[in-house]
Amino acid sequence: MEPSRASVHEKGTHVSVSIFCVELTPEEKEIAGNGLNDEHYKDFGIKGFTRDDLIKNNAFEALIDTYDRIFPLKR
């Protein structure tokens, strides 16, 4: 069972994240998707998302802030 966000923060944690912004053609998306780890991506592959998607899925505020810096006009 995965710990809740609250329990992780109570114990403390370090996270290293890399964020990349790319625009793929349908063909590039298919090629990139073929190399993904099935354990993590088998249900949906590479998927685009919006700011509203981040909010609806309870993304960390830092991720929403990063989205706003990359896409300042898409609010």
Description:
The chain has 75 residues and is mainly α. The protein has one domain. 48% of the residues lie in helices and 0% in strands. The chain has 5 helices and no strands. The model has no long low-confidence stretch (mean pLDDT 82).
Q: Secondary-structure blueprint of this entry?
A:
Layout: H1 5-11, H2 26-34, H3 38-41, H4 51-56, H5 61-70
Q: What number of structural domains do the residues give? A: 1
Specify the oligomeric state.
single chain
What is the SS-derived class?
mainly alpha
Mean pLDDT figure: 82
Shape descriptor reads: globular
Strand proportion, as a percent range, falls in under 5%
> Which regions contain 5 or more consecutive residues with pLDDT less than 50?
none
C-alpha end-to-end distance: 35 Å
The biggest sheet amounts to:
none
Order of helices and strands: HHHHH
Rg, rounded, reads 15 Å
Q: How many strands? A: 0
Helix share of residues? 40-55%
**Helix run count:** 5
Descriptors:
single chain; 75 residues; mainly alpha; 48% helix
